[in-house]
Amino acid sequence: MNAPTSFDLDHISRSPADLDIVVRDRRFGRDMAAKRWWLNGDPVATAWFNALSATFPRGEAFFIESVKAHRDNASPKLAAEIRAFVKQEINHTREHIVFNKLAESAGYDIAFIDRRVEEMLAMTKGRPQILNLAATMALEHFTAMLGQELLSNPAHLEGAAGDLGDLWRWHSAEEVEHKGVAYDTWLHATRDWSRFRRWKVKSLLMLIVTKRFIGHRVADMAELLAQDGLTGFKWKLKIAAYLLWKPGFLRRIVPQWFAYFMPGFHPWNHDDRPLIRVYESEFPDAVMPAE
User: Model's pTM, two decimal places?
Assistant: First the structure.
């Protein structure tokens, strides 16, 4: 008599069936003068966003290649979402290159951040592509968490110079919208894995990514503040207060971070598309088909 058959259904996507990933082809910062403390005159807040932006051009190119490497035999729905994901990320790269040039024009040297990212990505060459996808999936969860926080709490970007606040809201909306693509690609690529193996690898990579992401961003903020002549314990305390107390970016995303390790996790277990619809209602003419 044959043994009972068991099915591991974890690899089946739980993204909303009616999810539509669109490309919002917008441009920012083209007609404004560079401003050193562009976010409400706050050097700490400015350092946080500048540090994040400096990682995006190389980081998003890595995300694109990691996802594309596992698109073979994807379902038509996932294949279409990967194409839309790629187009969104290309636009993000374009706009953050412009943003980064504004930061440099304001007098900041952010090249050290780009060099570190380049060095870290060089270490990924030759390792199994599935590990790059797992790292991408973890980092995409971070960008989705931060994007949700920015859209949920408009106070984060109050006082932003020119249209730079709109840049971050636009980026946030698209990060929330495509938050399941890397994860669903992972589920597709590991469809023959056991549930435990899938959980073990994704959890380990998230722990590594978290340590590096937070450690490097804090160090980057400290270096950018040092370029303003703001050094010492007082300014380290201000960085900690900004991230953990008010506005508390890292404190606010802790529940979503822990959710990543729970059985049955999927980014779309929490459907936050209403945040995207609120954003889109402000810019109805800035949307183009993803296909």
Answer: 0.92
The single residue listed with the structure tokens 């441009």 is 27
The contacts of residue 230 (CB under 8 Å, 6+ apart) are 43
Tokens for 123?
């270490």
Please state the domain count of the chain: 1
Q: What is the mean pLDDT of residues 186-213?
A: 97
Question: Distance of alpha carbon 20 from its chain centroid, rounded?
Answer: 19
246, with CB counted inside 10 A (0-12, 13-18, 19+), is: exposed
pLDDT at 2: 37
The CATH number of whichever domain residue 143 belongs to comes to: 1.10.620
Residues 6+ positions from 108 with CB-CB distance below 8 Å: 36, 50, 224, 227
Residues of the domain holding 238? 36-282
pLDDT tens per residue across span 257-282: 999 999 999 999 999 999 998 888 77
